[in-house]
Amino acid sequence: MTESEISCCKVGRVAEVVGIDVDRELADRWTGEDRQSTRELADWFNRKLLAAELTAAGIPTKDGEVDNYYRLLTDDAVSSGDRIETRRELEQRGVSVDTLDERFVSHQTIHTHLTECLEASLSEPTLSERIDDAETTLGQLQSRTEAVTDDTITRLASHDALDIGSIDVLVSVQVACRECNHQYSVRELLDRGGCHCTR
Ligand SMILES: [Zn+2]
Ligand SMILES: [Zn+2]
Known about the structure:
2 domains; binds zinc ion; disordered N terminus; 59% helix; 9 helices; mainly alpha
C-alpha cells in the first residue's frame, strides 16, 4: 500500500507504511491515568518509528540505544558535529535519515490525529471531582480572606487605630436559596448536594 491510499493524517499514513500499530496506545496514553502531553506523545511516536526503521535496517537496538539515536538526531542540545556523524553512521548502515526526518511528526500532528482521526477526548471530570475542585477553590478564598483580615486588623491595632488584643478571624460564606429563603454555609450546601426545596 502506498502512503496516498490510506485515509488518515500523517500519523496514520506513516504508521501504516512503517507497519506499527499505535492508535490504541496513543489514545490510552493521552486520556489515561497519567496523561501525557501531545509533545511527549510525538516523541514517543517518533521513537517507535525510529526503532522500526533501525530494526528494518538490521541494526540491533539494545536498551537505551533508540532513545540515544533519537536524541542525537533531534535534540537541539546536540552539537552539529555529533548530529552529522550520527546521520552519516545511520546512512552507512542502511537507514534513510532524510526519509526519517520527513516521517517524524510534530505535536500538532499528534493532536490532530487524536482529536480528528481518533476522536479521543480527555475524559471529563466526574461530579465528585468537580465538587472537590470547588471546595478547594472556595477554601483557598476563605483562608485568604481570613489572612488579609487578620493582617489588616492587627496592623490597625499596632498603630493604636483600633483597641483590641490578639484576635481570631472567622470567615463564613452563606448562600441563600431564593426559592425558600433557606440559608446554608457553602460547605453545607456542597455536602448536601443542593437545596432540594423545589424538587
Ligand atoms: Zn490521523
Ligand atoms: Zn430552597
